[in-house]
Sequence to fold (147 residues):
Amino acid sequence: MMKKVLILNGPNLNLLGKREPQHYGIMTLEEITKQLDELACTFGIELRHFQSNHEGVLIDQLQNAADWAEGVILNPGGYSHTSVALRDAVSALQIPVIEVHLSNIYNREQFRQQSLIAPVCTGSIAGFGFRSYSAALYILAGILNDK
Fold:
């Protein structure tokens, strides 16, 4: 049976390919999604993708994932640095969550250098552009196979 993973993307990630390509690259979210779906097949993983600009909707998706997903890859976008509520939703999950960022948040503005989400995640990957997602999927597949 295929393992199920939620790929959850937060605010402004729908603008990938247009918004600040020097930080986020030129690939669109749709292109990243397609690439991840192809990679997931090699790991025997089924992905469900969701993006929202709304904090509460992201929290709802995380809470729903507890009922069906075996893991989550989360790019919380700007909510990484501001959302205690999103952090609490991640903390409540009993499944692995990997935080991803396209840009290296540690060499950006001071306010972007701390993630409220990272301490409650299994791990974080940042700074590798679209490859951050691929790396997270590779690692999550290993974690799920170890169980």
Notes: The first strand starts at residue 3 and ends at 9. The two ends are 14 Å apart (CA to CA). The CA atoms of residues 22 and 135 lie 20 Å apart. The chain has five helices and five strands.
